[in-house]
Amino acid sequence: MAIHRLPGRRAGRRSPSHGGSRRRSLGFTLVVGIILLLVFALVFSVAFGTRRITTNAVVLHTLDESLRSATVARAQVAIASHAASVDREFGTNSTGAIELSIDEAVRALGDLRLGLLQLEELQAESAVVTSLAADFTVTSEEVIRLLEAHDSRSAQTIANDDLDRSFRVLQSALVEERDRINAEVSQSDLQLGRIGNIARFLVGFIVPTAVILIYRELTRRQQRQQDLERRLAVEQSLGKARDEFVANASHELRTPLTSIYGLALMLEEDPVFRASETAPELLDMIISEAADLSRMVEDLLTTARLDAGALHYTFEDVEVTEEVEEVVGPMLRAGLHIHVECVPGIVRADRLRFRQVLRNLLSNARKYGGPEIRVEGRVEEGKYVCAVADNGEGIPADLESRLFQRYIHQGHQPLVLGSVGLGLSIVRALAEGQGGAVHYDRRDGWTRFVFTLPLVAAVPGTAAGTPGLDPQAAAKGYPPLEPDLVQPLDYDVGAGPAGSRPSVPSDPDREAFPA
Fold first, then answer.
1. Is 359 within the bounds of a domain?
2. pTM of this prediction?
3. Is pLDDT above 70 for 15?
4. Which domain holds residue 199?
5. Residues 502, 514: contact at Cβ < 8 Å?
């Protein structure tokens, strides 16, 4: 089965302007991303630097307080020790002054411990400083204990030797740590100054440039959007004009076609005309060609209505076997051999659109399929499944995915004569519009187009477990039948009675005559 259309423009080819626009968009996005990344980096750097400076400032304050506390403790212990020595040598009484100095020293030692704890919480403590502070504290407490025990001589000795030495070492360590933190604060302040310069540069140059670029890009996009809207409006206008032309031309063509077809049928019934040897054959050609042309005109009209959203359906209960006979009957004139095997069933569908679907599939099989054509119908899971099959070569593999599209073609071969390339696309649209579906299947040497419609009722005997007619079927006038009396419709159109005549639809606005 071969289906073609005129070669057209490749859908996958993109214009150079489209590629340039895409590259500009990518470049613009990249620039904006880099600027945002710089801004985020600056914000993070400023926040991190500020936090670091703040922490170091707290550490500096704590180190200064610790150094002050150590100095006060050293001085008060020395005063108390000296006062005790004076009392011992000269017999004076400085008990009040000694006690006051001891209290001040104890308080200063407590402040020193608190400072070391704060440094530990800030994660700025030094093992050396901690060890030296502990040694100084132990020595100071030892001197205070001796003073409280009135051992002024030993207290004086420890205060002049061990306490003085431990204080000087601790003082040196605290000053060194303070200078290191001061250097870090200076470095952080220098870095923040550099970041501030970069930020001022961004604010003064890059940010305005980015704003200009963004405004330019937005303006271009707005211009492109306006151009696309204008082009869309023009294309819509052209499409509307095309649809109106197709609809008007189709209506104008249907009138003479109907006359030609009707007059040909009248001539065929004339005994004098039938007595001629060549006239019947020529008349059969006229009828066949007129029917094909009528089908093409109907496809054009249906396509125009689908595009305009003006295709309406008149749903009713339709007996499938009756409609199959109405569609298959006219093909007797072409001498086709069509084997029909359909079980009776009632579907909810538009009668004339159902015929159009079946007619297009049969026409497709007749033109492009094999010599044997079959129409099969069965009831399956609440649906009526109807298939049109032929023993032709089938559809090329590269066309199967696009089979139900309009105007499909194979390579650059011209459009197949006798078709406008709309039949299968209309089949799918009409089947789905009636709540059904259609698909293609190729197996065992047979090409099958299968479409399904919602089932209203199945005649008894057509499917397992169906004891009688559905109430809706009974309301249509179908009498209840015994299962053994109901047989599937099975006949060969090519073997039909001579001179049988197809019926003409009664709605001239929707369909001029069966094709």
1. yes
2. 0.45
3. no
4. 20-211
5. yes
